[in-house]
Amino acid sequence: MIIKNDIHTNLEINTLEDLKKLKPLMEGSNLKINKSQIARELGVDPRTVGKYINGYVKPTTRNRTSKIDKFYPIIKELLSEESIQIFYYKRVLWEFLKDNHGLDCAQSSFRRYISKHEEFNNYFKERRKNYSSSIAPMRYETAIGQQAQLDWKENMEFVLNNGEVIKINIFVLILSYSRFRVYRLSLSKEQDVLFSFLNEAFETFGGVPKELLTDNMKTVMDTARTNNSKGKVNTKFQQFADDYNFKVRPCIAGRPNTKAKVEAPMKLLDEIRAYNGMLDYSELHQLVTRLNNRVNNTCHTSTGKIAILHLKKEKDFLCELPRTQIRNLYTIKTLSVTVNPQSMINYKSNQYSVPPEYIGKRLKLQIYDDQIHIYYNTNLITIHKVKNQILNYHHDHYIEISSLTLNKPIEEIREIAKNNLHMIGEVYKND
Q1: For residue 258, is pLDDT > 60?
Q2: How far apart are CA 143 and CA 327, in angstroms?
């Protein structure tokens, strides 16, 4: 479009941005503009023409708010110096907010959001300083059914919801081909616990791999393997290996990268520290189980496959499990009990609470780490510390039990439960 007048001729208007050229002419002369005609030729509304003539400039970027913004105060509190919760990775914080605060966004969007906030980004940089490594492990793959890799996440400090600080160990066994893994939580790493966890893992796999790659832990090796020595396998562990028909392959001492398939997934267990101060010991066990299930149902970045589906293929290539009589030699003793009408089970003349939904049902007990682990089928229900006390209640169980008999508001029941539990502790403790 060309606009002509007595002073300026051939003024070309091709875009909305060109309309600002008309402003000086309109102010310094009697030039009259037909906005409707210009609008028709440019295919816009006449009001838009007027806006651009008056100097409007379309912004190059949009100032959009993020749906993550409403989580800013929560993120700030979680990453503050006062928080006892620890997040080593942005992924862990993303998972925590999804599971506990209803965050609904892609991980990539969340990572970008954190990176745009300097105070949050610096938090992760500081936390990960000690995690950097200049050593890149050599990538290798093993045949299907050939190998599993064993390790412990050792001596992790965890703060329970009552303020008690405990040191925990997490057993990890991963099949090298399918990347299917088994996690188990324990306060100790004694050989009996290791044997039981290995047996449970093999039963979960549905068979036994041909070899077990491990470091030089004392429950496996009497003498460490070095560059100059093949080391010596512990006699009891060698008997276990013979009974289950696998070979023990210890790594050379000081070379953890040899077990890269199990070392790398260990970092996933740092997510546990995000729950410092939030869980009791039983809930901590349940958290480890949830993490285990989640990682086995997630697509693995190296294989591009979901481990639990990949395991179905690998099962056919694993060796058979030994007969039940042999496996029983290596399992932690299991007792069977019935829950009484008071929602308690008996162990060595003392009683321990379970949720009232299990009244009348048969449950199984395993005792290790000086803790009673109570199962319904294969599901862990609760854990009690073995005590020299006749009646032992978990606070939540007692509230549930009280709610069945007291027709009162829940706040009042909680107060009654608190007072009653204090009295029970005083009256029924053994001298």
Answers
A1: no
A2: 26
Write the Ramachandran bin of 96: left for phi over 0, alpha for psi from -120 to 50, otherwise beta: alpha
Nearest CA to 383 out of 283, 235, 254 is that of 283
pLDDT at 139 > cutoff 60? no
Domains located in the chain, CATH noted: 2-53 (no CATH), 81-127 (no CATH), 147-324 (3.30.420.10), 333-427 (no CATH)
Residue (of 295, 279, 303, 284) closest to 91 by Cα position: 295
Rg over CA atoms, the chain: 33
Q: Are 67 and 105 in contact (CB under 8 A)?
A: yes
> Percentage of residues in the chain with pLDDT exceeding 70?
86
Residue with tokens 């970008």, as numbered in its chain: 112
Q: Cα-flanking dihedrals φ and ψ of residue 251, to 5°?
A: -75, 160
Strand partners, 184: 171
Confidence of residue 361 (pLDDT cuts 50, 70, 90): very high
Model pLDDT for residues 68-108, shown as the tens digit of each residue: 999 999 999 999 989 999 998 899 999 999 999 999 999 99
Residues 236-256: tens digit of each pLDDT: 999 999 999 999 999 887 655
Supply 358's token pair. 């299990």
**DSSP symbols for 328-380:** HTTSPPEEEEE--TTSEEEETTEEEE--GGGTT-EEEEEEETTEEEEEETTEE
CA–CA separation, 182 and 202 (whole Å): 9
